[in-house]
Task: structure prediction
Amino acid sequence: MAATYDAIVVGGGHNGLVAAAYLARSGARTVVLEGRPKTGGAATTEAPWPDAPEFRVTRLSYVMSLMPPTIINELELPRHGYRIYPMGPYYQAFPEGGSIKLYADDAQRNHEEVSRWSKKDADAMPKWDAWLAGLAEVLGPLLLTVPPSLGSRKPRDVADTLRLAWRHRGLDVRTIADVTRLMTMSIADLLDDWFESSQVKGALAVNGVIGTWAGPYEPGTAYVMAHHSIGDVGDGHLGNWGFQEGGMGGVSAAIERAARSHGAEIRTGARVARMKVTGDRVTGVVLENGDEIDAKVIVSTVHPRIAFLDHVGEEHLPADFVSDIAHWKSRSGVVKINLALAELPDFTADPGSNLQEHHTGSVEMAPSMEFIERAFQDAREGRPAARPFSDGVIPTAFDTTLCPEGNHIMSLFTQWVPEDWNAEPHAEELEAYADRMIDCYNELAPNFKASILHRDIVGPHQMEHEYGLIGGNIFHGELSLEQLFHMRPAPGYADYRTPLAGLYYGSSATHAGGGVCGIPGWQAARAAIADRKAARRGAQVRKLIRRS
Ligand SMILES: Cc1cc2nc3c(=O)[nH]c(=O)nc-3n(C[C@H](O)[C@H](O)[C@H](O)COP(=O)(O)OP(=O)(O)OC[C@H]3O[C@@H](n4cnc5c(N)ncnc54)[C@H](O)[C@@H]3O)c2cc1C
Result:
């Protein structure tokens, strides 16, 4: 006999947990099925060194910004342990000497810092910030919008499209031109229009290539920069990022507690093998161990290829949709390196291994646009980057829960290795890649290499096989222009619904994903709840008609 619930959520990453929390809150008997032994997916805190369990790292994702206050407040996440330390400045020391710090919300200090490299750039900086803030006002609300099905002639879809157009009727020619530039330009070209110094351009380019299989000269990278600049950690500062106490697993744990507080059941080690489909409707799932669980509503939050091609099966799906999912781009060439440090990096440009402001934000290895581009070109030519670029952070500058006092954790989000490194472990080459990455930092902070107590390297193969991040892509699918908004994850199905009745889709491969923002899970649950209500109303009406 199959167990029966009102709703099943496949995948216990943060989006699955958000979906479960909202479904359970609406009164649905909900179960989350997570294949790994623990929840969180890519938002996870782990102790990767068995002989040093006192060190915990935020193993994949590492900083928060994109989760909207609506979700944080409605799920009462602070009550469940969500606690963010706003990050310090962006920091880059340069091989030629000197350094730069950029602050999220201190125009005066930004002016002083940038003036050291270019007076002209320092004067341009407030205008750049205002320009980005203006664009965020347009793009930010779009993140919470359900994309309309453009081109559909169904009355509901036409009405959705017209409503969206009407909402943006106030946009002027200038703003539309700015949005067009942002969506189509490379981050390198965009920054060339604004700034002259290579140091400032390198600093501002990082957000344009995070998690992206594209160097800074590729069209579309300007938008990736904006995606990473829109968010707010709930304190109202544009583009400000923060560290969750206890690492990113703390975010997942807070959402899980919220879901449980509403009655959701969460099963780990429960890997789904396939969905049960009758006609054009899903009716339940079969686990790898053979257990069956039935429900009228299923929300899947796993990678689209797993969700649709593996779990549903192409025989149950329209051919166009199958083709769209099969062609979904999911590359990235990211390698995450987690380090346990005996002491903080002592930068020649800003001496001292005592905790200083430049340790509290992002500690970058992106000294110029050319440096970043070279790393990408190496990987595109089929080699791991000789000198990788890194978005580094030291969460223990604030968070003392991750390791013993006096030690530190450093997280290096690095790029690139070749796009096909998801197919094989490449263990030895990853070790050599990590050595080179560490050497790059050591050139700027000569105590760095010797300060490393333990290191953990997670490459694309492990991301795919252990965490279900197909292709090693950190967002379940690239943030390239043809995979955004009404195209995410497939044209006609960007409203968190799918070709099958009862099946909803809410992973980072839908609009507003990726990132740890919870919006896909929230939207998928909202769609399911709305359809459940409509079905109940329809049943009541039919009953009344039969009685009369
Ligand atoms: C290295 C790295 C760094 C990142 N850095 C950041 C960052 O700093 N900030 C940020 O906002 N975002 C970051 N991201 C992106 C962000 O972490 C992801 O977009 C987000 O966590 C994905 O959440 P999700 O719930 O959609 O999917 P996932 O977290 O991938 O969750 C899906 C879950 O489904 C489970 N699953 C898979 N198959 C099955 C199955 N058959 N049955 C049952 N369960 C299954 C998986 O085990 C997983 O737990 C990063 C990602 C990576 C990989």
Remarks:
- The CA atoms of residues 92 and 364 lie 5 Å apart.
